[in-house]
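User:
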Amino acid sequence: MSHMGLYLPNHYEGYLLMVILRNVMCEVQVLKALVLGEEERGQSQYQVMCFVTKFQKGDFITADAMAKLRQKNPSTIRSPEEDRGKENYTMTGWVLLDRAGPISRHIAPLCSEAQDSTYARDVDLKAWAELPAWICTDSPQDYFGRGEKPNR
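Assistant: Predicted structure:
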């Protein structure tokens, strides 16, 4: 099994990576980033953004599996079997946090500071809509939007 990683340094061109959360049941990955503002340009000190994406369960090694590998041979240096390079995503939809619970109950609390800046890809929304009803009880179209953001 190969490990698919998100290769972002902790601090990169004004972005400070905060959290990567994976909900394996709904195949949801949430990246929460802190975007540092430029005070000399009159920007606020920071902005929080969240990016919600779908992942394949077989594309990463769980923390439990890694812990077992470390126990078995703690001095071994582990590296991915293959380098998949960088992944670029175009986020065309946004997440309505107050309605995101059926996709993952972790989205709203994790991204509470990103009410108007939590994004997803259309292809991911369609994939979540096809998951069995017992995993995600309502249609993602009811919880995610396209086009104009709602006025808050």
